[in-house]
Each structure stands twice: as C-alpha cells, then as structure tokens.
Amino acid sequence: MIKRTLATELKAAVGYTPAVALLGPRQVGKTTLALEIGRQINALYLDLESEQNRAKLAQPELYLADHQDKLVIIDEVHRAPGLFPVLRGLIDRARRAGRTTGQYLLLGSASPDLLKQSGESLAGRISYLELAPFSVLETPNLPTDELWLRGGFPDSLLAANAARSLRWRQDFIRTYLERDIPQFGPRIAAETLRRFWGMLAHHQGGLLNIAQFARNLGVDAKTAAAYLDLLADLYLVRRLPAWHANLGKRLVKSPKVYVRDSGLVHALLAIPEKETLLAHPVVGQSWECMVMENLLIAAAGKAQGYFYRTSGGAEIDLLLAWPDNSLWAVEIKRSLNPKVERGFHAACEDLAPARKFVVYPGQERYRMAHDIQAISLLELATQVAEG
C-alpha cells in the first residue's frame, strides 16, 4: 500500500483535537487512511451510507455516549448535519471530565453544508485536514508522466492498464454528476455541469473569465459563478490567486482556474493515452497545472501559492510565499532543454525572489544561470515539503 504523507499529521491531530474533519473528493482514499489510523487505536467505524449504521444513530446522543472511550470514525458525515450539535455537547461533556484528545474523526466529500455546520457548531473543537489525490511525493517509484496522464486518484493511477484507468475516470465523472453533486447543492442539470467542467478542462490554467463561461453555457454570470464555487468546494477545481502588491505595475488580478487532477482533465477531453496527449493543444497547460498542483500539495500549511503577471508581459507561473516573507519563483517547462523567457527575468526583477527554479521533465539538477536552477518536479516538491 502507498503511504500517505498526511498520515502522520492526521494521527497527531487526532491526538490533540476533540474532532478532526478529513475532507477531500470521493474515492481519494479518506476511508482507507482513516481505517489505517483506527487500527492503531481503539476506534469504531460508522458509514452513513449504510442503512444499518444510520439506524444506530437514530438516537445519536445515546449511542455515541456509550462509545466515548473510543475514537469514532464517521464516514459521509454530510448525510447527517444534525449530528454536529450532538457532537458539540458530547465533546464539551468529555472536556469537563478532563478528556481533550481525539473523540471523532469525520470524513466528508467537502460538502459546503459540512463546512458550514461544523464551523457553526464545533468552532474551537475541530481541525480540518485535506486529503488530495496521490502526489509525486507519495509515488516516487512511478514515472512522473504516469501520474500526469492518469492523475492521482488511487483506482485510476493503480489500474492494470491505461484503458481501465480511463474507464474509471469516466465513471467517476458520471457518478459525480448524476449522484454526488446533487447531494451538495441545488439541482443542476448533469449535462450542463458536464459541459462546464469540460470548458474548464479546455481552459486549463487560463485566467478566469466568468462572463465568457456564462455566455458559452447560456446562463447568467451569477449561475456560472455558483457552478465554479461548487466544483471548488468539492476540491475538484482550484482558483490560483494573482499576486498583488503595490509595485507601481499594472498587475493581472483575475485568478487562474484549473481542474486539479490532470487525469480528470484528460478524461474530460477524451484523451486516452500519452501519445494523444502529447499531440493535444492542452498538453503544455496540462503539464503546468499538474506541476503546480503537486507543489501546492507539498506546500500545504507551509507556503501560499500565487502566480504573477503584469500587463507588460512579466510573468511567473507559480510564486510560493513563505511565512518569513521570502518568495520562491517557479517557471514550468515541458521540455528537456528548457529556456527561461524574458518575462520571467522581468518578473524576478520586480519581486526579487530568494530562490528561482525551472521545473522540467528531466531528472538532472543543474544551474541555468547563476541564480536559476533546472530541477525535477519530485526534487522540488521534496524541497518545498521540507520548507
């Protein structure tokens, strides 16, 4: 089994916080990770998609009070938002009795209702952790291009062959549209949302223009923005903010937007294998966004991610802002012989980053200039994770 880098942090959080919410898209491995943690301690697992387990919680306060000596893992917790006030009461009762360590591990597919309910009812009692699909740090023995083509969802990445991987991703998209998304928001026609998701894949890594998306869908801008919010809340899409500071420059302020998992991008665009991908117009942006996503996963909790662009053409693909106010500038190239363009140099003159990197598909690390290094994704992700 592939070890998840979040496992240590999750186990620690369970040790010091009364409730921990492990969030992320479906099929990303939340249940597997939670059960692994549960096997190491005295844990009880409840899946709210099971009628039998839902029946156990018909009187939740009575049932859970009988198991306060255990870590209770509640899967698909968004199906029972009424649980949160009950959990608050049980946690407070346990605190008065002197217990402050983990009592509840809540798993959810990042429902906005889950965040709202838990935020209102469990403030000061809950920690949030996000489990992303497999990253390059968790799969160092697999070719990076395999992770790029198939994406990081376990069943897709580890499928027996490319055809099965693609079929899994196609089924995943269909299930999300027809069954899962209707649980989280207002009724949206599956075909309309499928078209919107596909537009985002075609627009991978582009600047957000919600008015253009709305026109293409035949809806108003408010509706298109709500679709985007929903996909972002479900951790399927990321909005990468633009860096803004008083530099005396005309800065681009719109965020970049992209589908977070590259395998889903390729499924949405009907790209079955690497040869087709390499000939597809999305290839450069797909690679760029896959690299950015992996670096942002590695930087989670350590550095904030941005991009930088001015109207004059200065640009940095990914800017990592560290707590000490230092900046790392990252240029991303899908070439074994990468070249740094004038816009990157101009942007670095504006921002004076402490470190400058060019991520490329090769393995050798070398100096491109006195202060710019070409580096592989795995090596830079490792460096970012170490801070």
From TrEMBL:
Source species, domain of life: Bacteria
Keywords: ATP-binding, Nucleotide-binding
Domain AAA+ ATPase: 16-185
Matches recorded under SMART domains: AAA (SM00382)
Pfam families: AAA_14 (PF13173), DUF4143 (PF13635)
GO MF, one annotated term: ATP binding
Designated name of the protein: ATP-binding protein
